Amino acid sequence: DPAGFFFTAMDTYVGGWATDLMRILIVSSGLAALLSLHNVVTRYGYALGSEGVLPTALARIHPEHRSPYVGSLVQSAMAVVAVLAFAVAGTDPVLEMAAWTASAGAIGVLALQALTSVSIAVFFRGGPHRSAFTSWVSVLSAVLLVAALWLVIDHLEIATLTKNVAINVVVVALPVVVFAAGWAYAVWLRSSRPDVYGKLGTADLDEPLSA
Q: Model confidence over 160-169: pLDDT tens digits?
């Protein structure tokens, strides 16, 4: 019983009350994780909206709560649409929807971490910030991350819980398509809207939000 052996052991060696407590902690931890993800996406929307890369409405700040409420509402609407699409398709919310989307997200995060390691290595190769040690450590990090990414893709059926080739191909292709679209948009911004392109990465998310 791989899905319930923790609960079985808790029931056997501690008691039912501990199992109930564990279930509450799992649900509350899941809620905290979802809120964290929601906040990250909302803040990205706020940053890109304030820089003019995405619609500026995403950067609107609530007059009372000082939160990027439009970005939060857009993120909520996107989540509702995604969940409804999976529900209409009749997929299992845990074994299919959660497994497939989490797998695509994991591939995307690993790929971004590998690319970030490469960019750090290049940055520290020369100029005033030259550091051979940091550069080589970043190269090693990139190699290890690429190896981890390959292992994830090579054994993707463990994460997606399906051996359906079409589904696994889509899970791998989705982060690639999103990255390619973002790259193409950035190239277009650099040539057609250089003022907006120059603002990329200038939003200070550590500062209190202002209207």
A: 999 999 999 9
